[in-house]
């Protein structure tokens, strides 16, 4: 398979704490790639440096053979990476439709002047954005809530709305940070089906998740972090048998 994203010896420090140490991963086009590890292993830090929220202290990320810009989230999105967050971050007072349209604006070609003057081209682009946003809401299963204010959606539907907004940026890689957190069993099954559909439509998925059953049943390959270092990588079956992974989760050397 073709490589989509590489992290090459990525390091991140917070003062004297090494949050990531020489983390190297290779994610292939069209796969669901899982990133797991005990609490405090560095998973969300990896997401934050990948998506430009934090600057890295060493190493690099390479997307489609080109180095990703560091610490510039909007440029990372333009390079084809979109993410959701462990703690839902929606525009709570906007409707579901408006939230998804906000994601579309990263790809807008009208420019500030066109938007301010409401030129014919800007109005037509806005109409097309709205149509596409409605399609995406249907795609993730919440089209009936297009006019509902985000804060009034159920928890599970807010999770789906975050995914919809990320999809509106037209990503090649969709990075999901704990998407099943707080979901009930039925919602989790629905999430798995949605991720499989997204992958089936050609979008690569990078997934952080504490639900090990979901990870092992959904991912093609899995990497395991512990204390900021990659300790294993492989198929779900290979990772589950790895002695270092078993020690990290069951060795009792850290508080949960």
From TrEMBL:
GO cellular component terms attached to this protein's record: plasma membrane
Boundaries of every ABC transporter domain copy: 5-252
Keyword rRNA processing among record annotations: no
Tagged with keyword Zinc: no
Xref: InterPro entries: AAA+_ATPase, ABC_AA/LPS_Transport, ABC_transporter-like_ATP-bd, ABC_transporter-like_CS, BCA_ABC_TP_C, P-loop_NTPase
Molecular function per GO: ATP binding; ATP hydrolysis activity; L-isoleucine transmembrane transporter activity; L-phenylalanine transmembrane transporter activity; L-valine transmembrane transporter activity
Domain of life: Bacteria
One record GO biological process: L-isoleucine import across plasma membrane
Keywords: ATP-binding, Cell membrane, Membrane, Nucleotide-binding, Transport
Protein's name in the database: Amino acid/amide ABC transporter ATP-binding protein 1, HAAT family
